[in-house]
Structure formats: C-alpha cells, structure tokens
Amino acid sequence: MGNITFSMIKPDAVTDKHSGAILKMIEEAGFRIKALKMTNLTDERAGQFYEVHKERPFYGELKAVMSKSHIIAMVLEKENAVADFRKLIGATNPANADAGTIRKLFARSLESNAIHGSDSDENARIEASFFFAQTEIY
Ligand code: CMP
Known about the structure:
This protein has helices at about 10-15, 20-30, 45-50, 60-65, 80-90, 100-105, 120-130; strands at about 5-10, 30-40, 70-75, 115.
C-alpha cells in the first residue's frame, strides 16, 4: 500500500451535518475513497487509537470527544496522500488553520477539530488497519 492516508470525520462534525461537505472537499482535492465506514469508538478504543497521547493532559477529553457519537473512518488514496491531506485539513488548532481548510470551515475547537489525518505513511497503515481489514481496502 503506497500513497494512502487514514482519516476520521469526528463526532461533532458528523452531528453538525458537515459529513457531506467534507467528503465533497476530499474528493474534489483529488483523493480516492478506498474504504469508508460510519462507526463508534468506545472510550477504551478511542484511548487505544490515540495511545501515543496517553501522557498528555488532554487525553481524557480527547477520548470523550471521540467516543460521544458516530465517526466516519476512511482510507484515502492520492499521490503524496499524507502531506496533501494535512494541507487540506489545516492546522490542528482551527484558530491557526488557513482559510478554506476543513478545520477552519468546520471545527468547533482544538479539542473538537472536525477531522483527523495521519501524520506519516507508517501511521497511515497502522491507523487504517485499526478500522479496516486488508480485504476492505481495494
Ligand atoms: P488529531 O489530529 O485527531 O490528533 C490528536 C488530537 O488531540 C488533535 O487532533 C486534537 O483534536 C486533540 N487535542 C486536544 N488538545 C490538544 C492540544 N493541546 N494539542 C494538540 N492536540 C490536542
């Protein structure tokens, strides 16, 4: 698998009915949706996904925000997928995100910043396999 990234539309963005607009932006930016599912994270599963942040002061709130309702998980393909996707979504803190980015348009706050994108090719593969079997990623 090359040129893929993993993304989740976060619960508040789904609740705020931004899923359609976000998916449209992703496709129009040249990404191909390889796999997609709406699902839930429990507090425990959210903790596993974000294990790297477990010592950070925001870990508890991050787990709560990510497990409050449905998420949309997806695997996306494009040349230079990881870096190009992070450009499309904008800075982690929407206050610092460029105009026209997904987080600037749709995030509620730093804690609820609309969407996740992998930060490396290795993490893209790890995160994709957290949600999808290899046979689901065509
Ligand atoms: P995400 O890219 O999904 O990765 C970890 C998440 O932790 C991040 O988006 C933010 O929504 C959340 N978060 C909450 N507080 C902070 C913080 N102070 N610094 C970085 N990330 C934070």
